[in-house]
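Below is a filled-in request sheet from our internal design queue. Each sheet records the structural input a requester submitted and the sequence that came back. We keep these sheets so that new team members can see what a complete request looks like end to end.

REQUESTER: design group, bay 2
PRIORITY: normal
MODE: inverse folding
CHAIN LENGTH: 266
BACKBONE (tokenized):
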């Protein structure tokens, strides 16, 4: 329940544009990696087809060696790419969330000059580090599965069409992982920057806003949204299902946000 001297700001939601940017960058690289994998395997498979059908040992060794070489090149490419993408992504989210909060505060006569504080720098470093690790994991997981698909195919004498179908399925898995990384990192980073900037502006309480986006959502979050639950920005809201204090957007696939409360207005 709001007091007469209190006002509620609009929520600063995660940027759909920044999420789409990171997602498109990742999917483009995954598609290029997948194309290179399919070309290499198809070429080598045709060379060794008779031996594969006969289930000889040498085709497996040759294919495995080719996949190892390809894996090394693409792992190094994603390693180099990850830092640049993560830094650009994190900086864009921080700038957008800060500008949005300043604009909202200005409506109530509050002019706040945000600086590159230590808290914001710490979040920036943590966000970049986490994003880098997640981006690096994409080729590791994809190429690991590719190696397994091809080796199992050789062992049982499967044809190229069957293996290609399995590879296409794994390409879909990698793309879905890229979508999850972009969405989840966007939510988490926005929540973290919002929390820090709100505290720096002297705000100490917020109202939980549940997002019904997505196919499923957490019952406890939906209940907190219905009841317009207030919580301390510094500590977060105690989620009974998780058994700990959390911030909106902190848990994986959580798209909830908050509305900060301004106190002391007549």
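RETURNED SEQUENCE:
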């Amino acid at each position: 329940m709001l007091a007469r001297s209190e006002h509620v700001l609009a929520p600063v939601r995660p940027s759909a544009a920044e999420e789409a940017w990171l997602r498109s960058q990742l999917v483009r690289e995954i598609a290029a990696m997948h194309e290179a994998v399919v070309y290499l395997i198809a070429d080598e498979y045709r060379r060794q087809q008779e031996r594969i059908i006969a289930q000889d040992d040498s085709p497996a060794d040759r294919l495995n060696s080719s996949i190892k070489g390809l894996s090394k090149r693409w792992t190094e490419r994603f390693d180099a790419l990850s830092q640049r993408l993560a830094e650009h992504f994190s900086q864009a989210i921080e700038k957008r969330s800060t500008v949005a909060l300043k604009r909202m505060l200005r409506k109530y006569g509050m002019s706040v000059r945000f600086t590159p504080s230590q808290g914001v720098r710490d979040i920036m470093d943590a966000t970049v580090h986490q994003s880098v690790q997640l981006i690096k994991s994409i080729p590791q997981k994809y190429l690991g599965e590719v190696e397994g698909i091809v080796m199992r195919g050789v062992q049982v004498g499967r044809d190229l069409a069957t293996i290609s179908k399995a590879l296409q399925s794994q390409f879909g898995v990698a793309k879905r992982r890229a979508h999850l990384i972009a969405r989840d990192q966007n939510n988490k980073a926005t929540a973290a920057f919002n929390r820090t900037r709100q505290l720096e502006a002297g705000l100490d309480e917020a109202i939980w806003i549940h997002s019904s986006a997505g196919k499923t959502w957490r019952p406890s979050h939906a209940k907190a949204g219905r009841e317009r639950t207030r919580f301390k920005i510094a500590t977060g809201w105690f989620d009974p299902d998780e058994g700990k204090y959390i911030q909106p957007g902190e848990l994986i696939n959580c798209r909830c946000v908050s509305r900060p409360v301004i106190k002391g207005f007549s």
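SHEET NOTES:
- The mean pLDDT is 88.
- The helical segments are 16-47, 49-53, 58-106, 118-156, 160-200, 219-226.
FILED BY: M.R.
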